[in-house]
Design goal:
The chain is an alpha/beta fold. The chain is built from 16 helices and 8 strands.
Amino acid sequence: MPRAGDRVKRNRLHSLCPYFAMFPETFVQEQVDAYTKARDLVFDPFSGRGTTLLQSLLMGRRAIASDINPVAYCISGAKASVPKLSTVLKRLAVLERNFDPTAQERSAAALPEFFSHAYCPVTLSQIVFLRETLAWRRTTVDRFIAALVLGSLHGEMDKSSSYFSNQMPRTISTKPDYSVRYWTEHKLSAPERDVFDLLRKRAEYRLNSDAPSMRGSVALIDARKSSAAFGRYKRQVNLIVTSPPYLDVTRYEEDQWLRLWFLGHDPFPTYSKVSVDDRHTAPAKYWAFLSSVWRGLAGILSPKCVMICRIGTKHLSLDALNAGLSDSLSAVFSGVRVLRPAVVSNIRNRQTEYFHPGTTGCLSEIDLAFELTF
């Protein structure tokens, strides 16, 4: 187990699947070092790809996490309970033996035009088979394999042979119509990939790093239900390290529609009539939402819990972000003490600029640290 302040070699499980708006594990390491001791409990109510959860487990802390996005739940869950490489390879061998390309022809043919441009026929058949076969919600090994698929489902084929798809960003799924136009205009064809072979190689690579000795717990829930979902941890959470969905920046149902399809959803982007924990265009509603999240998790926090929050926007000033987050916490907790000055970071090298020149996303982020008391 690393000692406080140590810089350790990056665990390959951290990059199991590329993810939009992710903070680095070194950020989590710094907070865990500063505010916890061995076996303290760390929580992330907006888990994303599970960086807080995995890094905390690697450092000998207990860790729990939640997310309403099935993609985030699958990836975080894969890191919370990491299977042995031998178990993954054995399961992949069984899946490959059971794969019959003709059995998936009808399912593949029924998909929208996007899929025939995005994947070559044999690759698509293998993906469809895994989509219909993996019990990722129920079993640890299938969840890990599903997370491996999500990590390779789309990406830059010109930079790596690890991706199954035609040219796409690795962090988000571009919309179907735009993608087909882009591939047609650039005369791009989907590469032929053997999904099973790539998954074996990916498993061997990812599991070459040590897995955590402890296991975490992840819930597929609205963050406002955290205390109910994690009732067994009443008054135990010592540290929260999280990054709420940014104000007016992204909507996971749009940006991750292809990964959502693999996990059983529609084969096209869908849009919720009522936003739950993704994009809010009105600041007042956004801060009210966050207050309801803090109220929903208060029951599992220790009497003096530290919260580290990275938050961003493309419209509000950093002072307004600071004030809004502070007010949202003060509406729930009797004591909200600032632990250190806010840290500001500017975002550069946005990957979507390569595919959508001129787009604007989150332009700045701010890191805030509070001690919360009841």
